[in-house]
Amino acid sequence: MGVVRFLDGEGKSRSLADFREKVVILNLWVTWCVPCRQEMPTRDRLQAQLGGPDFQVVELSLDQG
After folding, report:
1. How many domains does the chain have?
2. DSSP 5-60
3. Is 64 part of a structural domain of the chain?
4. Which CDD domains does the protein's record reference (predicted)?
């Protein structure tokens, strides 16, 4: 199985290996999911409070296109 790659918010190709040595919360979501969108501000606050060299919230949309 190969490495799963995705684009970050700036269009840069990334993989989970880019977050090695960090604690990562990986959230898989889709734009049409209302509860998914409602949860995002909470994870944004978590990232703002704890994000840095040791912690990262990764939001990965599964929408196509």
Report:
1. 1
2. -EE-TTS-EE-GGGGTTSEEEEEEE-TT-HHHHHHHHHHHHHHHHH-BTTEEEEEE
3. yes
4. TlpA_like_family
Task: State both tokens at 16.
Answer: 């989970």
- Is 9 domain-assigned? no
Please give the residue range of the domain that contains residue 30.
22-65
Q: Which helix (H) or strand (E) holds 31?
A: none
Quick one: which H or E segment has residue 65?
Answer: none
39 lies in some domain: yes
CA distance 58 to 26: 5
Task: Please report the pLDDT score of residue 50 as a whole number.
Answer: 95
Could you read off the pLDDT of 3-56 as tens digits, one per residue?
A: 889 988 899 999 999 999 999 999 999 999 999 999 999 999 999 999 999 999
